[in-house]
Amino acid sequence: MRPACALAIAAALAGCKSTPQWKACAAADEATPRPACSSGLDASAGPPPAASPSAPAKSAKRDLTIPPSINEPVDTASLSPEAGTNGPELAQNFSMGEAVRRALARSPQIGLASALTSEAEAGVSVARAPFFPKVEVSGGSGEGVDGLYRASSRTVIGADKLTKTNVPIKYWDNRNATGAWRTDSNMAGTQLLYDFGATSADVERAVKTRDSQALKGMATVEDVALSAAQAYASLQQSRELLALAKDNLESLKGIASLINRNEQNGNGTQADLKRVQARVADAEAIVVDQDYETKLAIERFKRLVQAEPGALRKAPDLRAALPANSNAAFDEAIKRSPRILSAVTTVQSARAEADSLRLGDLPKISAEGQADSKNFRGQNTRTDVELRLMLTMTYKLADGGLSFAKREQAGARVTQAEMKLVSEKQDVEADIRQAYLQLAAARAKAAGLSEGVASSAKARSLYREQFQGGKRSLLELLEVQSSYYTARYNQVTNAYQEQKAQLTILKSVGRLATALENNDKAPLARAPASPRKRKA
Asked: So what's the pLDDT on residue 90?
C-alpha cells in the first residue's frame, strides 16, 4: 500500500454521512454524495444517534477533573541491544506521529476495512437496481427434430411446381417440420412502477450498511493508531528502564569494588562482600529481564511500523487535546466516536431491512413489454412476429411461511443491533472513566515521585561519602541505592502510564489520529550518556 493510503481511506471513510439527500438517491437515480473531508478522521458529522427503546438513560456522572501534570516522560534514544538486520527498512529517527502514519499506511487491517467498505458501497448499487428498466434479448437457430407427429398419416393438398396441379402429399415428409430450419429471437423488458416503498427501504438499508462499515473502518484507523502509539511509548519506556537498570548495576559494582578494597585493607569482611555480590547478581538479572522486554518492544514496533526504530523523538504533549473531564469526554464520544456511530447506523440498517421485508409482501405494479420473431424455412416458409405491452400486478398469495420467517429474522437482528449499541456505549464509557481515573492517579503521584527521586539521589551521594568516612554501614549504603532505583523506576513507569491514558482517551473519543497529526512537531530526542563507572 502507498504511504498516503491511510489518509486517503480516512478521507473516504469520513464521507459516510447519512443525510436526507441520500434517502432520495434511489428515486432520483443520482450519484451518492461524497462530501470532501480532511484526513483528520472527523466523524462528528456522522449519522445522528437513533432513539432506541432499549438504550439506557444517562446515569449520574462523576466529574473526574484532572489536576495539571507535573512530570513528563524524559527523552530517550536507542539504548537497546543492537537490533537485527532482517527488518524491512533501516533504522530511522521517528516521531510518534510519523510512526503512526507508517503503521496506518502499511496495516492490513486498514486494507481489509477499505475492501469491506467498497463491498458495502457496491451493495447500494445492487439495492438501487430495481428502479431501472430490465431488458433481455435471446435468440436461437437450428433444425427441427423428430417428434410424435412423424407417425401421422394426415395429407394436405399442395401445388406441384412442375405440372401446376394439386396433388395429395404428406405434410411431415416434405421438411415442413422435421429437419426444417428455423430461427427464433426474443426481446423482453420490465420496468417497476410501484411497490409501496419496498425498494426504497432496501436502498436505505444498503446505505446504512455502507455507513456502518465506513465508520467501522474509521474505528479501525483509531485502533491501529492507538496500537502504534502505545508500541512507540512502550519502546521508549523499555529503553529508559533498561538504561536505569544498567546504571543501578554499575552503581552496585562500584560498591562491590569499594568493599573488596576495604576487605583487602582489613577494613571489611567477607560477609559484606558476599552481600554486595548478591545484590550485583540481582541487578544483573534485572538487566537481562529488561533487555528482554526491550527486545519484545522493538519487535512489536517493527511489526506495526515496518521499520527498525532508531532514536525516538519525544512524544508530543497531548494534554491540551483532552476533554476537561470524563463527562465531557463521554458526551463527545457519543457524537463523534466511530465505534458508537457505527453501532447507531447498524441499528438504522436493521430497521430499514425490516421495513423492506414488510413492504415486500405488498403487491408490485410493473410495465412489461415483449417482442417475439419466429422464422420457419421449408415447404411453407414464413415469419411469425408478436408484440405485446402489458401493465401487470404481482401479489404473492402463499409462500409456505417464508416471508413471515424472514420478518422474524429481521426483527431479531434489530434487537441484536440495539443491544450492541447499548454495549458499545457502556464499553466506551467504561474505557473513558478508567483512563481518567488512571490519569488522575498518575498526576497525583507525579509530584511525590519527583521529590522522592531527588531526595534519594541526594541521599545516595551523601551516604557514599559518609560510608567512605566510616559514618554509614554497608547495609545503609545498599538500601539507599535500592531506594533510588525504586523511586526512579516508579517515576518512569508513572510518567508513561499517564501518557498511555491520554492516548486511550483520545482514541475513545475518535480524535487520536487527528491529535497526533496536529502535534507532530517533536524534535529529535537527545541520547542520554551511557552510564559511567564510578571511581572508588
From this structure: 55
- Residue by residue, DSSP assigns 160-209 as -TTT--EEEEEGGGGTSSTT-EEEEEEEEEEEEEE-TTHHHHHHHHHHHH
| Domain extent for 316 | 5-55+80-131+198-357+403-518
Instruction: Give the 3-state secondary structure of residue 309.
Output: strand
Name the strand (E) or helix (H) holding 277: helix 270-305
Q: Are residues 89 and 44 in the same domain?
A: yes
Q: At what angle do helices 270-305 and 198-264 cross, to 10 degrees?
A: 160
Question: Cell triple for residue 281?
Answer: 547478581
The β-bridge partners of 376 are 182, 382
What is the distance between the alpha carbons of residues 41 and 10, in angstroms, rounded to a whole number?
6
Number of domains forming the structure of the chain:
2
Instruction: Kindly tell me the number of DSSP H helices and DSSP E strands found in the chain.
Output: 12, 6
CA–CA gap between residue 251 and residue 484 (Å, rounded): 11
| Amino acid (1-letter code) at residue 304 | L
Write the pLDDT tens digit of every residue in 275-303.
888 999 999 999 999 999 999 999 999 99
Q: Identify the band that residue 58 occupies on the pLDDT scale cut at 50, 70 and 90.
A: very low
Q: What pairs with residue 166 in β-bridges?
A: 159
* 8 Å CB contact between 486 and 275: no
Residue 530 lies in a domain: no
Q: Read off the pLDDT of residues 443-495 as tens digits, 9 standing for 90 and up.
A: 999 999 999 999 999 999 898 888 877 788 888 889 999 999 999 999 999 99
Are the C-beta atoms of 116 and 12 separated by less than 8 Å? no
Cα(484)–Cα(455) distance, integer angstroms: 8
Residues 269 and 372 in one domain: no
393-409 residue pLDDT tens? 999 999 899 999 999 99
Same domain, 103 and 206: yes
> Is residue 69 assigned to a domain?
no
DSSP state of 468: H
Please say whether the beta carbons of 172 and 379 come within 8 A. no
Compute how many other C-beta atoms are within 10 angstroms of the C-beta atom of residue 509: 28
What CA–CA distance (Å, rounded) separates 475 from 481?
10
For residues 187 and 55, give the distance between their C-alpha atoms in angstroms, rounded to a whole number.
53
Do 474 and 276 form a contact (C-beta atoms < 8 A)? yes
10 Å CB burial of residue 383 (0-12, 13-18, 19+) is exposed
Distance CA 139, CA 244 (A): 84
Q: Which amino acid is at 474?
A: L
pTM of the model: 0.71
Mark whether 224 and 88 lie in a shared domain.
Answer: yes
Backbone φ, ψ for residue 400 (5° rounding): 70, 20
Same domain, 190 and 211: no
